[in-house]
Structures are given as C-alpha cells and as structure tokens.
Design goal:
By secondary structure, the chain is an alpha+beta fold. Helices cover 53% and strands 20% of the residues. The strands form 3 sheets. It has a two-stranded antiparallel ribbon. A two-stranded antiparallel ribbon has the order 3-4. α2 runs antiparallel to α4.
Length: 127
C-alpha cells in the first residue's frame, strides 16, 4: 500500500495511476539484468579459482589456474614417481614431495576447479 502514496510537504498524498506506472518502470529499470547477474557470478567464480587450495597429506597446496604451469613443468621434469622436489605451500612454508604426491595434488586441484566451475554453470542455468 505504501507504493501508492508519497509524502509531499509532510503530508501523505495518493499517487496517480501514471505516477504508479512511472515508479514501477523506474524500479524495473534499476533491477540487474540477466547479463549483470551472469557477470557477477563469473566474477565470483574467478575469485574462487584465484584462491583455490587443496589439502594433501596434512599440507595446504595452492591450486590456482596460475599454478598449472608450475605443476605441469615439474611433472614433466621429474623422471620417476619417487623423484622428489621441494614445493612451496600455501602458507609459504616448504615441503619435500615426490612426483606421485605432486600428481595427486594436481588432480585434486583440477577436481576442485571443476567443482567451482560446475557451481558457476549451475547458478547461470538457474538465472
């Protein structure tokens, strides 16, 4: 009912039909479009990916899209599953891990990224 009135000089005045239509049109124009909502969802997805981590063997590893090059390079350079490397963790500490461990972390990171993307796609479909 309050959308049918406005206050003028401290008094409540009933809106005309044209004023009500104009108010409704203004409210409609100010609502976010589907494209706006999709852009916001994409921004949320990108932020989630940019801080993506996984826990493996009690340690937290960064698995952001920007880390893919580190994983793929080291997995290519290490010869055997038992070869090891010192890896920098999410908290900037270091841990010695094997190629097999690095592969496991990389796969967990891919799964986490896929879940973030799935949530984004589900939300977009729900728009």
């Amino acid at each position: 009912m309050s959308d049918l009135y406005k206050i003028i000089n401290g008094k409540r005045r009933k809106l005309t039909a044209n004023q009500v239509k104009a108010r409704e049109a203004e409210e409609l124009a100010n609502q976010p479009t589907k494209a706006d909502k999709k852009r916001d969802l994409k921004d949320l997805r990108d932020r989630a990916l940019s801080v993506s981590t996984v826990v493996y063997d009690g340690s937290e590893f960064q698995t952001r899209p920007s880390d893919v090059i580190n994983f793929t390079t080291m997995l290519t350079l290490l010869q055997n599953d038992t070869d090891s490397i010192v890896w920098t963790l999410a908290d900037d500490s270091e841990k010695t891990i094997t190629k097999a461990d690095l592969q496991a972390v990389y796969l967990l990171g891919l799964q986490a990224g896929a879940m973030i993307d799935k949530d984004y796609r589900d939300a977009v479909r729900a728009l």
